[in-house]
Amino acid sequence: MMRLLLLREARRAWRAGAWLPIAFFLLVAALIPFGVGPDPRVLERIGVGVMWVAAVLAALLPIERLVEPDLADGTIDQLVLRGVSEEWIAASKILGHWLGFGPMLLFATFPATILLGSEGAGLERLLVGLAIGTPALAALSVAVAALTAGLSRAGALAGLLLLPVAIPLLIFGAGEGPSALKFEAATALALLVGSLFVTAAALRAARR
C-alpha cells in the first residue's frame, strides 16, 4: 500500500507541474546578477545563500495541492478506513513531494551556480547542503499544507508558518565547513521527524 501511495503522490507531483519550482529556482539565479551587478566576487559570496532562499520558496510553490484536495474529496478518509494510518499517509506525501522537486532541484544547481559564478567548491557545498536539506523542506511544506488545509488564503499563511521554521536549516545549509553540515543534518532530521508527526496529527484533526 505504501508503494502505491508513493507512486500516486509522485505522479500527482509531475502532472501538476513539477517543472514550476525548478523554473522558479533558475529564474532567481538568472535575475540576481541584474540586481546586484556582474561582479563575480559579489556573486560568489552571496550565491549559496541566494540559492537556499530560492530552494525554500520553490518548495512552497505547490503547497495548496499537497493535502487540501485529498481532504476535500474524501481520499484520506477512504485510506484510513482501509487501515492506512495517518503517519503512512504523511510519509508518502512527504516523499512524493520531495521526488517531485528535490532531484530536479539538485540537477538545476549546475546551471544556477554557473549563472552566479559559484562553480567548484561553491557548487559542491550547495549540492551537499541541498541534498541534506531538501527532504526537510518537503516535510515542512507537507506539514504546513496539512495545518492550513481548508483555510482561506492558505498559500500566504503557509509561507508565514514555514519560513520562520526553515531559518535554522537555511543558516546551516548556507554555512561553510563540516560543522555547518553536521548542524544542518541534525536540524533536517529533527524537522523531518517532527513534520511527519505534525502532519499526521493535522490529518486526524481535519477528519473530525
Automatic annotation (TrEMBL):
It is a multi-pass membrane protein. Keywords: Cell inner membrane, Cell membrane, Cytochrome c-type biogenesis, Membrane, Transmembrane, Transmembrane helix, Transport. One of its GO terms (biological process) is cytochrome c biosynthetic process. GO terms for molecular function: heme transmembrane transporter activity. It comes from Sphingomicrobium lutaoense. The chain crosses the membrane at residues 12-34, 46-63, 95-114, 126-147, 154-174, 186-206. Belongs to the CcmB/CycW/HelB family. It holds the Pfam family CcmB. GO terms for cellular component: plasma membrane. InterPro entries: Cyt_c_biogenesis_CcmB, Cyt_c_CcmB_bac. It is found in: Cell inner membrane. This is Heme exporter protein B. Required for the export of heme to the periplasm for the biogenesis of c-type cytochromes. It comes from the Bacteria.
